[in-house]
Structures
1.
Amino acid sequence: MSLFLDALQWLAEPTHWSGANGIGTRLGEHVFITLLVVVVAAVIALPVGIAVGHTGRGRTLVVGVLGAARAVPTLGLLTLLGLWLGIGLKAPVIALIILAIPSLLAGAYAGVESANRTVVDAARAVGMSEGQLIRRVELALGAPVIIGGVRAAVLQVIATATLAAYTADVGLGRYLFAGLKTRDYAQMLAGAILVAVLAVLAEILLAMWQRRARRKASPAARERQDSELSGNGSQV
Amino acid sequence: MRKMIRTGIIGLAAMFALAGCGSGDPLDSGESSATGKGEPIVIGSQDYYSSEIISEVYAQALEAEGYSVDRQFRIGQREVYVPELESGDIDLFPEYTGPLLQYWEPDTEARLSDDVYESLKKAAPDGLRVLEQSPATDQDSYTVTKEFAERWGVETIDDLAKVTEPMTMGANSEAEERPNGPKGLKETYGVDVGFTPIEDSGGPLTVKALNDGSIQLAIIYTADPTIAQNKLVSIKDTEGLFLASHVVPLASDNVDQGAEDVINKVSAAMQPEDLLNMNRRSVADQLPASEIAREWLRKADLG
Amino acid sequence: MNWLSHSWPWIFELTARHLALSVPAIVLSVLIAVPLGRLAYRHPRAGGALLSAATLLYAIPALPLLIIIPALFGFSLRSPATIIVALTLYGIALMVRTAADAFNAVPAEVRQAAMAIGHSPRQTFWKVELPLAIPVLISGMRVVVVSTVGLVTIGALVGIASLGTLFTDGFQRGITASVLTGLIATVILALVLDGLVLLLGRIATPWASQHVAIKAQDTTREVSA
């Protein structure tokens, strides 16, 4: 496929790596945005999710709201916020945070809920306080599922952060839009390849983390094929 | 019982699929067969609301004369739709003389209306032709805030050399490489500016960025009502960086003489103020293109 | 609200186009993903590779995919086939894993019991495995529905008309009402289709205590799907 080769050629071109529009800069911006978004979304979503999972209250409400939130197309949110907040990082970051929250929240409450009830009861019987219970038991046992939520969120954000370039001069999405508008499809494809590579790297790292958490949570359990790659969600 | 349910589900799914596929027709790109009054003429427009209004005007005028029209609006930029015109997937496209000439001949020396039009007629590839150009213009212009213009005494583009602080230009991505962007500015006027892409064709985000000071210079089209609305200033192009830019329909060989006459009549009737007014109806009064077009055609006694 | 009062016909037309693009993609995704998921479950080694490929596919941003597909298949960029293929690919990527999990979740004893009664493997699949897998498949399908309806809007960036056009048009003209309407309409459309799928699930599993079965699956599936 000659288009693919053109894209690889574009990536190999040394001038494309340096400068404000260089691959290095754009990659850095993209990673920065992803980290910022996921951390802020986690700070908002994880406590709420843990609370819901632990107390069992508000679950129906949360599931309902999340269902609706997942249905919001990020492009729409982005243009709306762009109209209110102008060019620059604010609009895309807020839109992406809203994108990331559902997966993180769902992961949090599902993780906490998945902790074996018998173990939880036993811990209470032994005299643990609620706080200790959450930290030492529910989070430890639920960690694999929670990390699964993080994986899903990170994947979505990496892929969707390309839209940030619609209203801001930032990220790998710039290659997509510039390439699209000038019909420089090699550039566009090159940008896509970079995003995909970034996503794969993130997946590998998070999968390793998840595997470690799973081993800690249930060292005796056999690893199941299907639980290797859990974690996914809507892209937009 | 279970079998019934299973069949039911498959039936529902099939129904959905059929229902979905059924209404797929309007989206098919037009056929490249010759058009008479029987075959629909495929009219396209740029991904720019003003272009959509002009396309709608031509569409309604043709329909009033009995032609059937297939509207394919908001296609995108020149790099995307010109090939479709050449291949016959689109029959008619309202264009702008200056930028279109520069697309086909980036090094052209023509600047004034008639020169540009004559060169354009010659530059059009086989199978395509430009019809009569309209008096209506929609020109690229470099725009600054009133405050900026007054502070630095900027009235013409050469005056930009007086500005001592670093300047950034905001415009659609494609301007970065085009002759009317920072490269052209440097070549023709020797002025250096940075560039930040804003994908709204001189729309609200561009205006906001100008007012916020995130950019100092923007490319906003002369027929855009927001220039007056926001008290912005278009600075004069004394060295002829920008070509004259009149509305001109680009047609493939599928457009017959009858249709051409209708279109030329409409083009001749459109004045620059008309275009400005129609744009205002769209942006300030928020009316849809179809209504604005109908309104103008009625007033001009053509629809 | 001047914009709104003048634009109803257009909003309806865009909604119809949006549906015309989403529904075939959703149906195709499910029809392709379910057999693939079953394959993945039956042959774990090949299945692992398949699921990895699915994850990778999901990481490709939508815009470039919309450009690659015409280059690969030869249809024009703006033809509905292009975006439907793209949406289907994403839908498959989302659904394959869920499908594999769904078949995995059918207890081995039930399958063995079916065979003990004398069912052929084929009969076992259609009469036992598939019906039992339905609750999980439905929850996966719901995710595909919501994701697909949202993704259609990206097409507006390349001239494919849908509710997403309300975003790009509103953006250019500075009409907030347009963008808001597009957002609300898309969400409503997604929720309506989601509800329909849920209903479908209930019709298809009259034997289960639906609330418990589907709700319980919601927990695990929301995270892993």
2.
Amino acid sequence: MIEFDQVTFAYAPDEPLFSGFSWRVEPGEHWAVLGPSGGGKSTLLMLIAALLRPQTGVLRVGGTELREPTPANGLILQDCELLPWANLRRNAELGLRIQRLQTRLHHHGRSAAMASDSIAGRTEHWLRRLDIAPLAERFPHQVSGGERQRCALARTLVTEARRLLMDEPFSALDAPTREALQELTVTLCQENRLTLVVVTHAIEEAVLMGQRILVLRRGRPVTARVVENPHHWTPEFRFSPECRARCAELREALS
Amino acid sequence: MTRMRKRDLLVAVLVVTALWQLAALALAKPVLPSPATVLRVLVRELPAGLARHAAVSLARVLGGVVLATACAVPLGLLLAQSRLARRLLSPLVYLLYPVPKVVFVPIILLLFGVGDLPKVLLIALILFAQILVLVRDSAAAIRPELLTSVQALGAGPLAMMRFVYVPASLPAVLSALRQSVGTALAVLYIAELFATDWGLGYYIHLRGTTLMDFPAMYAGIVVMSLLGLGLFFGIDADERLLCPWRTSDGQGLSRSPSGQR
């Protein structure tokens, strides 16, 4: 669960971007956050990921107030977040290796830390699930943008994230790749009962990925409203009149 | 200096040897013996002390490399990350960077006296400035999105060092070494003229001036050249080993647009 309770956040010295902002995401829900660029979408995601802290109000993620980032929140950005010097396998296992390093540090020894073959096994599983196992020894610049995003997804799922937080994850990709990854993401979230929050400026993406859509309108503070979209990602939805009607409704809400 | 193909290098060696032979024939004076003479003397001199002179010089260079890397990498990373450190130290770096380090030879020899320490320090000083600047720039050029996404995986300061900053600065260290190892050898030669009985600088200078043993002097020069070449090869090998993503198809990192295939 993600719960914003009267949250205020400002980038000093500007006027608050969010003021008395309340929002609730139930476990396993798929949310899209739609809005213009500079409208606070990414800030919202950074707040959930605990990379930014609210100035007032309470933000509970998974039942607790987060003080520092946790791998339970899988953050996926538009591109370039893979380590350029590590091959896809090393990138996918990064979260686990970070955990192991920090566990050893805190417990002064390897007893509590994860074994290497356990890391390798879990990584291999997700590389296969995301269809990038044959590319595991390649470096990020040697694979396509879509394959890099699959690797970013693998890296997040390997750490057993409970929530996927995505910031314009597919906007740099061509249309067929984007659609395949949108479908894959929703499927993975359903299979693993993950909460999904995807930030986007593309109306169609919001309609396809979000069962509920948070529409942010530019302003200080930003104003928000929720659009329900219960039939997202059923196979026929993309071509249905309901989908077109929803897009029109959102275009209206944004302007 | 870019990476060399072995065959091209062999051709270059043959050309230089041929030119040397022609010049020796044309000049016909003891001051320029033929390559064959020098090779004969080289084979004779190596077990008789030249190998040890070379080993001493090599050890001083490697000592300088280790010392400079150990000091410059942490400081470079600090400069890249801390605004305070930048404000305090950047003017100093700016001031010292362009100073030709060879001017410190007399000072360091006076301060640290005889032995290996002043030679190692001098080499370290030359490499230090270069490594510091390149490491600082490469760490500062890491994309903020990359930092954010690794932090989001729960990485603390130590994990950021281990998984991001250190690997990101490795190529900078190797570039810095490649750029300045030639200068380091030149300064080592100067430093070995004083207060030592070992090292290629001492060997070459003594044979060439006091003893007038020109073939042996050339043998020393050949060994010095081989030492420099060996260091270049060593750096290339390290780069293939430590930075496979750069040599895999020659693309750089960090700021380079990795958008499309």
